[in-house]
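dumping this here before i forget
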Amino acid sequence: MATARRRSHARLQLQVNRTLYVRNLPCNITENEIYTIFGKHGSIDSIRLGRTSESIGTAFVVYEDVFHAQNAYDCLKGVRVSGQYLVIFYYRYNASTQRHDVGRLKKKIDKIGKVRLDLER
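structure:
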């Protein structure tokens, strides 16, 4: 009960969310090892480990509760795992991806406009 009361009055920073982006992981780390490290700080919803050459050494850890994610962030940033220091961020939707989506939407709008013009003829 005290925890629920504390949570209702707790203030979160704007960037805090349920998803942590973890970098500088050892290349040979498994999802089970990540679960062992991050699961101590709260209930995990999912883990996505980077598998491509560009994303090896990274992972997304999604918690069931934003407070669990905040606890893991506070406790694990800078912790050493297999000789490497973890770099942890709250996940943010990338601005370059947003630009990509805008370009795709413009193409769809142009296509709809062409169809509309054809129908008007």
